[in-house]
Amino acid sequence: MMRLHYAPGSAHSAAVRIALAEKGLEPELHKLDLVGYEQHSPAYLAINPHGIVPLLEDGGRKIFETALILEYLDDKCPEPPLAGNGPRQRYLARKWGKYVETHIAPHLAIARWAALHGKVPMEAEAGLDRLLAYRRELWLRAARGFDREQLAASTQAILAAGDRLAADLADSEWLAGASFTLGDIAVFAHVAQFTALGLRMPKAVEDWLVRVAARPSVQAISDDLFPVATMGPEPGRWG
Amino acid sequence: MLDVYTWEPNANSGKPLFCLHEKGVPFTYHYIDMGAHEHHAAQFLTINPDGTIPAIVHDGFTMTESTPAMEYIDEAFAGPSLRPQDPYHRWRMRMLLRYFDNVVAPSLAMIASNRLAAPRFVGQDPADLRAKLDRIPLPERRATWEKLMFQATPAADIAESERRVADAIDRFDDILRRREWIASRTFSLADIGVFATFYSLPTAREEQVNDSATPHLMRWLRACHARPGLQAALAMGNGFVTQRAAEVRERLGVAALVDG
Questions:
Q1: A2-76 is a CATH 3.40.30.10 domain
Q2: Which residue of A has its CA nearest to B57?
Q3: Mind giving me the DSSP string for A1-45?
């Protein structure tokens, strides 16, 4: 039996739920409340010491990192295929899965925190002591707030991501070519939040967002797509 | 047609070379001299407008992300499989490569480039350096090179990289205490990804990586250095990497199978 720990408002969680729906899989769901900092509760930290969602438990094994959970689901349940048809499509789908975590998610977390006036309440601040050092550091940075320079860099990175998406969508319906893949799922859940934060995307991207949003798998979890002021699970690439 | 545009058989540059030699796939190697900033020059930018290496072009299809490209090579060409069959071990392979790509390899690159590349820029005309920076397409790469050229990498970042490397050495020694290879019982892309950067540790960090401190990592390094495919890739360098690999083999007592 599979069990998914997830939270509404977490783009990474939404991506995993979309992939599960595409596959027709219905794991047991454990919903966490990010606004109430439930991901930092001692009970959840006992399951995942990193204090992040999503986490998939499968037969006692813990599977994490969103893009890699998506690939795991496709390896384990190959029908319908979502990793792409042939090595070229699979390369492109993986390229986008990686791009999300190094170039999109960390900047979205910062832009979102600023746009939604994120604050760490006193009781949550106390819970930071329970976190691993790198997670505590990230939350302390968020609690202090991000400076204008960092915000400008993150906004710039998001707009650059929009241009890259538009380039790959210029002559194909989906990000990795002719069929919908894990790459579309991984990217969509984040880009859907850009528009909610008032970050405009090129037309090719806006049109693609509409195509993805029309899929039944996305409609089934559409309540989870709204942004919440929380720090993402991804540190991006160091250095 | 398979063309690989890359620097030395080292770190990200080396991943396609190691993979292709392990699979036994013929290819054309185009040497891009990173020291001469050839990866930021107009000729290379026509192949990869991002100015990053490696770039792999297979029948007109260009790949510039080295880890997804390794999976492509394993899928698209005949030869021994370099990925575990079981979904869980395949996930482990990808998860450990991700940790290595995002955390470990950039830490080692920061330390090495500050020691080896940064001093070469001291005393150079700042206007020339600015002109070199202006040719770098990606803002995050430009920021890294700017810090190198003007000796501006914060000492705290280098110390944090040292901490991350020491932590990774312990982690991989522990992983290899429990498993023969990094992801599972079989040699995989995770071994290639880690070896591409860790191959030199027994001489480069001999105080941290040796038979008493990290016996399991040393056992694995000997097994990797003894593989004909990995040796053949290391022999393709233009100088110091190939030389360094020969010194490491000698230190480990591993026989050379391929002429350097």
A1: yes
A2: A88
A3: -EEEEE-TT-HHHHHHHHHHHHHT---EEEE--TTTTGGGSHHHH
DSSP state of A129: G
- The continuous run of DSSP H or E covering B2 comes out as strand B2-6
Q: Predicted confidence band at B1 (pLDDT cuts at 50, 70, 90)? A: very high
Q: Which residues pair with A61 in a beta bridge?
A: A58
Q: Cβ contact (<8 Å) for A90 and B90?
A: no
Q: Do A95 and B87 touch (CB under 8 A)?
A: no
Query: Read out DSSP for B149-210?
Result: HTT---HHHHHHHHHHHHHHHHHHHHHHHH-SSSSSSS--HHHHHHHHHHTTHHHHTTTTSS
Q: Which CATH number fits domain A86-215: 3.40.120.10, 3.40.50.800, 2.40.50.100, 1.20.1050.10?
A: 1.20.1050.10
C-alpha span between B219 and B222 (Å, rounded) = 5
Q: Note whether B65 contacts A94, CB cutoff 8 Å.
A: yes
Question: Domain residues for B46?
Answer: 1-82
> What is the overall mean pLDDT for chain B?
96
Q: Please name the residues in contact with A55: beta carbons below 8 A apart, sequence gap of 6 or more.
A: A4, A5, A47, A48, A62, A63, A64
Quickly count: other Cβ atoms within 10 Å of residue A46's Cβ: 8
Residue of chain B with shortest Cα separation from A90: B72
**Which of B75, B94, B139 lies nearest to residue A90, judging by beta carbons?**
B75
Q: How big is the A-B interface in CB pairs under 8 Å?
A: 76
Packing angle of the helix pair B105-116, B155-178 (nearest 10 deg): 130
Calpha distance A192→A115 (Å, rounded): 15
Contacts of B68 in chain A (CB under 8 A): 91, 94-95, 98
Q: Answer whether B94 sits within 8 Å of A71, measured CB to CB.
A: yes
Q: Using 50, 70 and 90 to split pLDDT, how confident is the model at A234? A: low
pLDDT tens, residue by residue, B62-97: 999 999 999 999 999 999 999 999 999 999 999 999
**Distance, CA of B32 to CA of B53 (rounded, Å):** 8
CB B7 within 8 A of CB B39: yes
ipTM for the predicted complex comes to 0.96
Q: Which of chain B's residues have a Cβ under 8 Å away from the Cβ of A101?
A: 98, 102
**Residues found in chain B:** 260
Contact A238 B103 (CB under 8 A): yes
Q: What is the DSSP letter of B254?
A: P
> Cβ neighbours of residue B108 under 8 Å, at least 6 residues apart?
B11, B161, B165, B197
Q: Alpha-carbon distance A233 to B106, whole Å?
A: 19
Q: Which part of chain A is CATH 1.20.1050.10?
A: 86-215
Number of domains in chain B: 1
